[in-house]
């Protein structure tokens, strides 16, 4: 059994970036990381652009200007303004080359074809210059940037329709156990509804990993070996829930050994999630998570999350850990470090009732995990607690 610190170190050291590239349509690239710098094909804006509704002026020493034309957004014509002349202009419209300032309409008095401004203004005021956001040939977004809806909007505004991104890992979830049945079936005595696969699939989807396959296998050794062999060969990361302990019908460990999966570690000095296995075969990473749902999800956030970020060549691999003030008392049983389900809000954290590793009800209410080290046996109100903020 190894420490949490050693387990984290081994995950970080043994999971390498995939560095496989893919080309995505821009509208389907949300959540991906760019594998190449994106070079802007145009200036943005591609012309001198009005920042507001008002009047484009060719400045002179007087406050009165002769109104000669109008320019709307999308217009392609170029009125030629002499000093002392103006055109009505609207937000986003191209500014004539002969105009050198824009006065907002609220500060203009109109009288037929004459306008009067209420004060002198500066050259280029209220004009967005050519290439203000990015110039043609410059880097619009750097390699490694995670694409967000704003980033997709920005690149689309440059006329970009496809981007090169790092391919996301292919993922498999394998659940084991004779007692597990699908929701919708009639529950017989001794059976429970299988929930781990949907839970893990949901958290993967929330992190924008969508290439996820789900498999189920009964407590049967030959079938376990055959299924694990197949999914390990086909996927970059395999998550197995249940069957990793030492019971008579826990076949996962034996199957992984037969398949010559390299054991990086097995069992971590923590609660929940002690019977956690991490191993590799070729370029595939394998996590055998505990069968208890809360333990499985805790191990996902603490360890699997890091593996996924490493695969995507990210440097910010761990979830944020902050110091929060406890609003609760808690007495820790045993001498293992513990992860506690909690609600974090504005610098404070409340420890929840129902910390059993089989209970998801408490986890369903939480947005954080509090880490209580081995040497701390009791938490009091006002204590500073290391808090892992979970992704929403």
From TrEMBL:
Question: Which Pfam families does this one have?
Answer: MoCF_biosynth, MoeA_C, MoeA_N
Query: What is the enzyme's main class?
Result: transferase
Q: Which PROSITE patterns match?
A: MOCF_BIOSYNTHESIS_2
Determine if Magnesium is one of this entry's keywords: yes
Q: Hey, which pathway is this one from?
A: Cofactor biosynthesis; molybdopterin biosynthesis
Q: What is its EC number?
A: 2.10.1.1
Q: One MF term from GO for this chain? A: metal ion binding
Single biological process term from Gene Ontology: Mo-molybdopterin cofactor biosynthetic process
Alphabetically list the UniProt keywords.
Magnesium, Metal-binding, Molybdenum, Molybdenum cofactor biosynthesis, Transferase
Secretion signal span: none
Q: Which GO terms describe its cellular component?
A: cytosol
Tell me where in this chain the MoaB/Mog domain is found: 172-310
Q: What is the reaction catalyzed?
A: adenylyl-molybdopterin + molybdate = Mo-molybdopterin + AMP + H(+)
Q: Which cofactor does it need?
A: Mg(2+)
**Protein family according to the UniProt entry:** Belongs to the MoeA family.
State the protein's purpose.
Catalyzes the insertion of molybdate into adenylated molybdopterin with the concomitant release of AMP.
Q: Know the name of this protein?
A: Molybdopterin molybdenumtransferase
Source organism of this protein record: Seonamhaeicola aphaedonensis
Taxonomic lineage of the native organism: Bacteria, Pseudomonadati, Bacteroidota, Flavobacteriia, Flavobacteriales
């Amino acid at each position: 059994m190894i420490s949490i610190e050693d387990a984290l170190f081994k995950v970080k050291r043994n999971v390498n970036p995939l560095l496989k590239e893919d080309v995505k349509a821009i509208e389907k690239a949300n959540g991906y990381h760019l594998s190449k710098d994106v070079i802007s094909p145009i200036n943005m804006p591609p012309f001198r652009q009005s920042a507001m509704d008002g009047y484009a002026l060719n400045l002179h020493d007087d406050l009165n200007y002769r109104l000669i034309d109008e320019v709307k957004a999308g217009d392609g014509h170029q009125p030629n303004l002499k000093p002392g002349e103006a055109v009505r202009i609207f937000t986003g419209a191209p500014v004539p080359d002969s105009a050198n300032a824009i006065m907002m309409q609220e500060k203009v008095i109109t009288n037929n074809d004459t306008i009067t401004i209420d004060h002198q203004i500066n050259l280029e005021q209220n004009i967005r210059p050519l290439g203000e956001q990015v110039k043609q040939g410059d880097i619009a977004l750097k390699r490694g940037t995670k694409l967000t809806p704003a980033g997709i909007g920005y690149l689309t505004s440059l006329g970009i329709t496809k981007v090169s991104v790092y391919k996301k890992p292919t993922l498999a979830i394998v659940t084991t156990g004779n007692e597990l049945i699908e929701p919708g079936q009639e529950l017989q005595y001794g059976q429970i509804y299988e929930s781990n696969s949907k839970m893990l699939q949901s958290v993967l989807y929330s992190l924008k990993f969508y290439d996820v396959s789900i498999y189920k296998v009964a407590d049967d050794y030959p079938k376990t070996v055959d299924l694990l062999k197949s999914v390990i060969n086909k996927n970059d990361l395999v998550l197995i829930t249940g069957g990793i302990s030492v019971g008579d019908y826990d076949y996962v460990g034996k199957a992984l050994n037969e398949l010559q999966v390299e054991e990086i570690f097995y069992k971590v000095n923590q609660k929940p999630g002690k019977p956690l296995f991490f191993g590799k075969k070729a370029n595939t990473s394998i996590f055998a998570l505990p069968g208890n749902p809360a333990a499985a999800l805790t191990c996902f956030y603490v360890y699997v999350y890091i593996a996924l970020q490493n695969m995507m060549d990210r440097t910010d691999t761990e979830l944020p850990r902050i110091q929060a003030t406890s609003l609760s008392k808690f007495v820790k049983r045993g001498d293992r470090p513990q992860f506690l389900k909690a609600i974090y809000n504005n610098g404070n954290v409340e420890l929840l009732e129902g910390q059993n590793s089989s209970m998801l009800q408490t986890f369903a209410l939480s947005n954080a995990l509090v880490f209580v080290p081995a040497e701390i046996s009791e938490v009091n109100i006002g204590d500073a607690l290391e808090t892992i903020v979970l992704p929403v």
